[in-house]
Amino acid sequence: MKKNNLYLAIALIVGLGAGWLLFGDITGDAANKDTSDMSDHDHSGESGDKMWTCSMHPQIMQPEAGDCPICGMDLIAAEAGADGLAVNEIKMTENAMALANIQTTIVGNTQASDADGMISLSGKIATNEENDAVQASYFKGRIERLNVNYEGQQVNRGQLLATIYAPELVAAQQELITAATLKESQPALYKAVRNKLKNWKLSETQINTIEENGTVRENFPIYATVSGTVSEVMAAQGDYVNQGQPIVKLSNLNSVWAEFDAYENQIAQFSVGQKINITTNAYPNKEFEGTISFIDPILNNATRTVTVRATLQNRGDLFKPGMFVTGKVKGATQTMENTLAVPASAVLWTGERSLVYVKTNPNEPVFEMREVTLGNRSGDNYQVSAGLNNGDEIVTNGTFTVDAAAQLQGKKSMMNQQMMQDESAMMGDMEMSFSNAFSSDFDKALSSYLKMKDALVASDASQVSAFAKATSEKLKAISADDLGTMEKQHLTKSIEMLDAVANNDNLENQRAHFVILNENFVPITMSINNSTSYYVQKCPMANNNKGAVWLSTEEEIRNPYYGDAMLTCGSVIEELN
């Protein structure tokens, strides 16, 4: 027994020794290798440093997975940021640059001698309204025959325009025939009857003919008093017309207007009396010289332009109203020396701001959005007075593609709607003033508005209409006598939109009108003395991804523009206490 135990012990020792000889070094090497690999491994890419974003709202960046705080969608892993990039810098791949044909240009100084100072304008030929004439009926009656039937017809002075049956004129002729027999005994009556017919534009010859023949004429002609081209036929054969009612409008095209649109920042460059060189596609090899005769004193708020007009002599009827023309004017102020100039294709506009993308790294495709201040436009270039330095490299082709890349990477961009505070400030900057009485009455309408908003959340179109009608009636009951122009406009537009919602049973149309309602209703609410706290909330996806706001008494998002489809899409942009 002892001998067997001794053999087992010897066998165990031999086995352990063989195992160490066979696997000892390998295990040690593996351990050393694991230790080395662990010491050399870079943990910078581990999930601890990974950022998560929303595919619909790329401005959302969170250190861990979860739901988007705006729309509730699952967050996705964001691309690892490029090392060494500033907060608003973006980096594009060379392949993306090539596919989008993105081109850059180095900004340089423009010397005065290199620029001719000519400003290019686009416009159209219009009729010279100073030469327009309206041919009217001088007496009441029925148009028996209309001799002018279409626009563009040429009419000469004295030409027959129409024949009219006029009962009053028939009676006046009978009066003349009777008065003619009494002209010796009652000359005043005779003279008064003749003057009556003269006032109806009957000629002396026509009046004498009636008197001599002693017969009443039922249908009377109307003759053109001027020559011109028919620009509008304003009556039809068989119509009953009143005295003074227009029948036809004539335009004298011997002279025409060339009307150009000048941008707000170009106004100072123009003055009445300036020479303007005009070309048209119809006669590309001809240049016509005109003189600026009028500059519209009122700015068009929609296009931010004013009309600059030149009067042209239209010899040979070369110019046709509606024809596109191009004008070049020597600016009233000359280009300053050492002014930076950029191609017009490099500039993006957002509201009142002008933006360009600057390449910040000369060796890599790294870009940053920068706001600039523009001066005058000369040809296809803009003068830049602030925002760029000589030698800066900017994107001149594919600017919108770069901006889209910035938006997708969650960086500041023209299209990014993350600047909600700025939009809230814009509404708050509308300086409107309301009395305490108005605030109190408007506050009563807010309760009906909130019920309408809740009905939109519930997608109940009939309830939306009912509460919109109730809100409208409360607003109509408010006295607007003491309101300023802006205040009245916002109140009137709010009532108009509420009536549109009330008279519509289509939920999508109701929500479309609700967008415009809030653009007027919310600024009023922000300007009055509120008895309740309200939250101004916004969904960036509503209104075709332009974003839309609404009011709520609860901080929790309940989206009226999508209802159950995206109930929690949105965020609070301001709290009204």
Automatic annotation (TrEMBL):
GO CC terms in record: membrane; outer membrane-bounded periplasmic space
Record-linked Gene3D superfamilies: 2.40.30.170, 2.40.420.20, 6.10.140.730
Domain CusB-like barrel-sandwich hybrid as annotated: residue spans: 139-250
GO molecular function: transition metal ion binding; transmembrane transporter activity
Residue span(s) of domain CzcB-like C-terminal circularly permuted SH3-like: 340-402
Keywords carried by this UniProt record: Transport
Family: Belongs to the membrane fusion protein (MFP) (TC 8.A.1) family.
Protein name from the UniProt record: Cu(I)/Ag(I) efflux system membrane fusion protein
Organism: Marinirhabdus gelatinilytica
Lineage, top ranks: Bacteria, Pseudomonadati, Bacteroidota, Flavobacteriia, Flavobacteriales
